[in-house]
Amino acid sequence: MADIHTTKTNVAVQTAIPDGRVTIERPPWNPTPVQRKSLPNAGTARANRAPATTAPDGSPEWTEQHSHQTVLQQHCDFFDTDHDGIIWPMDTYRGFYALGFGFILSLLSVFIVHLSFSYPTCPGILPDPFFRLYLANIHKAKHGSDTGTYDNEGRFVPQKFEDFFNKYSNGKDGVTATDLWEALKGQRVIMDPIGWGGAFFEWVATYIMLWPEDGVLKREDVRRVYDGSIFVDIASKRAGSAKTKAA
After folding, report:
1. Are 143 and 199 in contact (CB under 8 A)?
2. Helix-strand-coil percent breakdown of the chain, rounded to 5?
3. What distance lies between CA 240 and its chain's CA centroid?
4. pLDDT surpassing 60 at residue 191
5. Dihedral sign of CA atoms 204, 194, 96, 153 in order
6. Helix (H, G, I), strand (E, B) or coil at 107
7. pLDDT tens, 113-122?
8. Are 98 and 105 within 8 A, CB to CB?
9. Which residues touch 19 (CB under 8 Å, ≥6 apart)?
10. What is the rounded (10 degree) CA torsion for 111, 220, 217, 91?
11. Could you tell me the CA-to-CA distances from 126 to 88, 111, 129 in Å, in that order?
């Protein structure tokens, strides 16, 4: 499969074998020299920046404002409205509601997120009686069967992000619902029901939130979901639309 950004491929690295059909069907991102120059050391995890081929510098203004946070913490920051490092269930509800999920889906999201991720992020042995999320430990809530774009410490790995789209986008600048279904099956690892469910919930929520008119979740929009920079924009646009309708 040709990379969407160039018709040339890096032939120095063999990424498929004829007898391994899956290695042909799901090619990893194999950067050309030009791509390696614009996105160097793509396999090295970035602590507080989320660069990709669509945005080699990531989200500069957002990163500057959140340089003290890992990319995973930045992803969660929108829901921590008082910026105390703790997300209450009501914070999550308000955040999802502001993103357009409505009452039922926002409430469902609260149960899924806090029942699944509260205890792993707790600072002690005992569970939190209010099912709060602690952002200092949010990396402990990472699950399996995902894209691998976040590493186990909450950093962003550009290579994994590019791999995902190169494997499942079929040459498009994004993924459709059908592509995502194949991706969920392709990224699934054995004996990981929590990971399967977590990945399914996250991609469904992302698709509902972005709801692309052409059915394609754009690569750059997904990148901005990873670092959380898109959430503020979506909430602001929806708030502005609501005010316009009210007027």
Report:
1. yes
2. 50, 5, 45
3. 25
4. yes
5. negative
6. helix
7. 999 999 999 9
8. no
9. none
10. 20
11. 17, 19, 9
